[in-house]
Write a structure and sequence with these properties.
The protein is mostly helical and 233 residues long. It folds into two domains: 99 residues, no CATH class; 122 residues. It has ten helices and no strands.
Length: 233
């Protein structure tokens, strides 16, 4: 496929699970993003915030074949979302844990509550606030899982996590666990929840940008419209 051919898809891109050596073998969400960004074929392209890319890979792989095509419209939106702001990692982790906590199975709630509370405290540290200050949305999520919330407060009591350590290890772990838990949750449309989670996280990265972002080789609105048209057929 040439650059000119990539302007608007003739048909909905067929996304598949896992890593692929080249486009002839298939493509996951981030591999197609690397192509649309004009980068070397990879599921770890430099055009996307690393934690957002991890979330996209997880959502891609935990969405079944019958629902994965609905993710395609979001692909151009992850291009140019790089930022050095460490608060973005905390905010993505908070969003993932907050969405997962009320819906996941009981045995997974403790992990999500600990992740949510830790991410909130890292964000508070980065913003110069008291660690006791939680966002309203996180307070609501924790209140919906009182036993897990109680466990998380006890588990994290006196624990110290640096923003760098959380960015490297804690945040990716929270993202992976949240996606796995949501995909396995007994809710009506878990894969719609995963897509919405990815879209919200893209918006978080976009809002944090302080300079002109890298542009995809496609017009995002035209790409999204073509994808929606194909889905409606």
């Amino acid at each position: 496929m040439t650059v000119s051919e990539a302007q608007v898809p003739d048909g909905l891109p067929v996304l598949s699970r896992g890593k692929h050596r080249n486009a002839r073998k298939g493509a996951c969400f981030m591999e197609l993003a690397s192509f649309l960004a004009g980068e070397r074929w990879s599921d770890h392209p430099s055009c996307t915030h690393p934690l957002l890319a991890e979330l996209a890979r997880q959502v891609n792989d935990h969405t079944p074949d019958t629902s994965r095509s609905a993710l395609a419209a979001l692909i151009p939106s992850v291009i140019g979302t790089t930022t050095e702001d460490p608060r973005v990692d905390a905010r993505i982790a908070i969003t993932c844990a907050r969405v997962a906590l009320p819906v996941v199975a009981a045995e997974r709630q403790n992990v999500m509550a600990v992740g949510l509370l830790t991410a909130e405290r890292v964000l508070a540290l980065l913003e110069g606030r008291s660690p006791a200050e939680l966002s309203i949305a996180s307070q609501v999520a924790l209140a919906e899982a009182p036993f897990a919330s109680s466990y998380a407060y006890r588990y994290t009591l006196g624990a110290a996590v640096t923003p760098l350590a959380f960015r490297r290890h804690g945040a990716p772990h929270v993202v992976r666990m949240a996606v796995q838990a949501i995909a396995a949750a007994c809710v009506p449309a878990p894969y719609d929840d995963l897509r919405a989670l990815l879209a919200e996280s893209i918006d978080l990265c976009t809002a944090a940008q302080q300079h002109v972002a890298q542009r995809p080789m496609v017009e995002p609105r035209a790409w999204a419209a073509a994808c929606e048209l194909t889905l409606a057929r």
